[in-house]
Amino acid sequence: MSRVRKLVLPLVVFALLVVAWEVAVPLLAIQPIVLPPPSGIARTMVSTAGPIAFHAKATLITTLIGFGAAVGLGLLLGFAIGASATVHDALYPLLVGFNSIPKAAVVPLLVMWFGIGTVPAVLTAFLLAFFPVAVNVAVGLATLESELRDVLRVLGASRWQIFRKVGVPRTMPLFFASLKVAVSSAFVGSVISETVASNAGIGYLMAVAASDFNTRLAFGGLFVLAAMGVVLYGVFAVIERRMTAWAYAE
Amino acid sequence: MSLEIPRGATVAFVGPSGCGKSTLLKLIAGLLTTSRGVVTVDGHAVTGPLKNVGMAFQNPVLLPWRTVLDNLLLPLEILRENRDPRAPERHAWRERAAHLLHTVGLDGAGHRQPRELSGGMRQRVSLCRALIHEPELLLLDEPFAALDAFTREEMWELHQALRLDRAFTGVLVTHDLREAVFLADTIYVMSSHPGRIAHVHHVKAPMPRALAELYRPDATEMIRQMREQIRPPRPAQPSTGALA
Questions:
Q1: CATH architecture of B1-52+136-232
Q2: Measured in whole angstroms, how far is the alpha carbon of residue B139 from the centre of its chain?
Q3: What homologous superfamily does CATH list for A48-247?
Q4: Domain map (residue ranges) of chain A
Q5: Nearest C-alpha in B relative to A153
Q6: Bridge partner residues of B14 (DSSP)
């Protein structure tokens, strides 16, 4: 019952907002070029479904490649930082410093190096996504209870065994929790880069629509982005639940 | 300090917080190394973590992603991976775990998740995990401190049953003087600043002991003495009625 409720309630609110929007545009005499009604946006989305699908696919692939690379490096870095105090002290401040750079500012450099296209988008997605993974994994390892370590050490367990048997499984809930954050970040990264310097992807589509004053198409792109973002987040939220059910006691 | 723990005996360390009881336990286990002096176990100086020890703490630290049985088998997995001669054959593992669970009254709980258990049950599992590889030395750091009074007394009896069953040498660190009197053969009262042994008490009552014995005059007198040794009584201040 409450599952249905949790699914239905936000959809009802969303539908009400769309209806209010639809009614408000003629009622307040808003110019469609400023704010088109949802029905107009929907018509445009249907008529340009082909190009939208093409660009959505481009964005999705870019995001997933950047995300995949970020997960790989984030895991390695997180394990290194969490397992070794020396690595932690040496790298963690640098990592925090790096993360505080607004990644949009890196895009022009990436374009200088790699030209306009997919590569800067993938790299931006990667740069945004690896930090949450690395931090969560490092925290998971570093907060291992000292008693547990002691219980295993007096059995003759090596550091590697403690890492494998306890550290890694213990970190998994944090790792999977970080994935849904990371995939959203990667998505943001690829769209930013596409908007500035690409010839494919929803970000590019929206930049073109904006330069044509095609407000409907720009809004269409926005809706597609929202839907993709929700789906990506949802997929990884479900994976998280599946993989680490033990961490959700009641 | 200098002391010797005979094989098969159980000794307890009591004393004020911060007197080094837990540190002493870690020194014995080889988890810490001495800056001066020597710890020898079984005739060998301790230089690194010992391998024939079981440990249990106030916090049972079970692995929440493993069932009770898999938690118990973790020590055996590690021994086996390390080709330790004490690792039993694989087929004997479950038998051994089932026997221990039976001894602590947790028959059939092997398939349950730690989160489904009460605090006392988790502590029993933790105790079983400390014993599954049949260590010769069992080190307990306030293992029952987080339990309610009745559960704690049950755990004392359980510990006694396990001790009679296994004949391990036991070192217990505790704040609970009754616990020390019930479980230990010798009790060392430690003082802080400097952390050293201030008094030694020998509990003469033979094993197995009954909880009711704790209320006999000799036991209560020993508890009273230790209490005074740890916290010397201060003259009661006459109440002025104000919080000055």
A1: 3-Layer(aba) Sandwich (3.40)
A2: 5
A3: MetI-like (1.10.3720.10)
A4: 48-247
A5: B49
A6: B189
* CA angle, residues A169, A80, B126, in degrees to nearest 5: 35
Residue of chain A minimizing CA distance to B133:
A155
Q: How far is B228 from chain A (nearest CA, A)?
A: 31
Written as six digits, the tokens of B1 are 């300090």
Residues of chain B with CATH 3.40.50.300: 1-52+136-232
pLDDT at B241: 55
pLDDT tens profile A21-46: 999 998 998 888 889 999 999 999 99
Least confident of A50-54, B149-153, B220-224, B238-242: B238-242
Q: Do B51 and A170 touch (CB under 8 A)?
A: no
Peptide bond into B194 cis (omega under 30): yes
What is the per-residue pLDDT across A222-233, written as a single tens digit (0 to 9) for each? Answer: 999 999 999 999
**B233: alpha, beta or left? (left if phi > 0; alpha if psi -120 to 50):** beta
d(CA A35, CA A116): 31
Q: For residue range A163-212, what is the model confidence (pLDDT) as tens digits?
A: 998 889 889 889 999 999 999 999 999 999 999 888 889 999 999 998 99
**pLDDT at B91 (0 to 100):** 80
ipTM of the complex: 0.77
- Is A153 part of the contact surface with chain B (CB cutoff 8 Å)? yes
pLDDT for the residue A250: 43
Interface-testing mutation among A146, A149, A155, A164, with chain B (most B C-beta atoms within 10 A): A155
Task: Chain A: give the shortest CA distance to residue B116, in Å.
Answer: 9
The CB density around residue B119, as the number of other CB atoms within 10 Å, is 13
Look at A155 and B133 and tell me if their CB atoms are within 8 Å: yes
Q: Tell me, yes or no, if B150 comes closer than 8 A to chain A by beta carbon.
A: no
Chain A partners of B115 at a C-beta cutoff of 8 Å? Answer: 246, 249-250
Asked if B65 lies within 8 A of A161 by C-beta distance, the reply is no
